[in-house]
Specification:
By secondary structure, the chain is an alpha/beta fold. It has a single domain, classed as TIM Barrel (Alpha-Beta Barrel), CATH 3.20.20. Helices cover about 45% and strands about 10% of the residues. It has 17 helices and 12 strands. The strands form 3 sheets. Strands 4-11-10-9-8-7-6-5 form an 8-stranded parallel beta sheet. The longest helix has about 30 residues. The chain binds ligand FNR. The site of ligand FNR has 24 residues, from helix 3 and helix 4.
Amino acid sequence: MPHYGDYQNLIYGQGLQGILPKVPVDFATMEAAAAKAMPPYLLDYVQGGCGDEATQRRNASAFADWGMIPRMMIDTRVRDLSVELFGMTFPSPLFMAPIGVTGLATSDGHGDIAAARAAAMSGVPLIASTLSNDPVEDVIAAAGETPCFFQLYTPKDEDLAQSLVARAEAVGAKAIVVTLDTWVTGWRPRDLNNGSFPQLKGHVMENYFSDPVFLKLLGKPVEGNRQEAVTLWASLFGRVLTWDDIGWLKSLTSLPILLKGICHPDDARRAVEAGADGIYCSNHGGRQANGGIAAIDCLPGVVAAAGEVPVLFDSGVRSGSDVVKALALGARMVGVGRPYYYGLVLGGAEGAAHALGCILAEADLMMAVNGMPTIADVRREGARRLD
Ligand code: FNR
């Protein structure tokens, strides 16, 4: 039975023939290589965060404050990293977090399709962002058999919200992820110093520009009226959601609804009471508010408050060991953001699949060495805070 960890055998085998990985295997080297390949405005947008970026640095470094004790004399030759969510079985607990400028990651401008192809290759589901260079229909189709979710930036116009969700559902999305923390953009000095916000240049608008409700509101074709279309988009973006809106959100779809951006246990409790199907603990990678607490440090409280409701997690995941720690702290599935983006930049769909494959290989080998052949074993052992 093949295991994710076998990927290292392939790499070492190729090394014997003088072939080295085209895309580095670790995040730091990958990020440095991608930084050289990206236009400066895009690098700042992707790599940058809110304020002095303390929160996003802490998101990643805080994983070092958690540790796991290895267990010995357990046969881990056969391992199973599969997880269940909403009645589906996924081969691993990893997923690709929604990234709104994925379209720009590849030189052909179709990075969203490349990310979906990486999902098809790796079996790692993609959460397709509302902000996309290709319409959701094409993105989800490119993921083949791998299930995808759709991330909703809820527009102010209710008919447009309904239309975006209905389109995602019609094309086979398996859940709707509603992002709660981005009705307004956080203070991002790098982008402000560049005077650059990609959406205002007309990038990643295709879900809107292909939408019948949006086109009706525009009242003219996008072609020849692009700037007007972008202005309309800006006026519609960012509905302020409150707990009273959950009923309305649920009325839009029969799919499970996950609430993205929950970090406080009380909010997790309210989400459960309000009928959320899943909770997504994340601080948007430190891009939205520079509050200073790492998302991973919020995860245990959110998991405890969520009870039986599944908790997805992202923010700061850079390696397989980060993934295993997040699982040990109770995440049902763990999201990767910037690492797959840099993989896309360096090697397209194959590069992103490689980035995911490396993270999964490290996670699998950590479980093999630490005597934890299943995710249930990881959860039972848990992680300890190092003081
Ligand atoms: C994001 N993120 C995001 N989230 C979301 O719900 N919709 C979106 O369109 C985007 N867009 C986006 C763009 C860029 C450039 C980044 C880096 C992130 C947040 C994303 O889903 C996730 O929460 C973070 O990426 C997690 O942080 P790390 O692990 O990438 O640092």
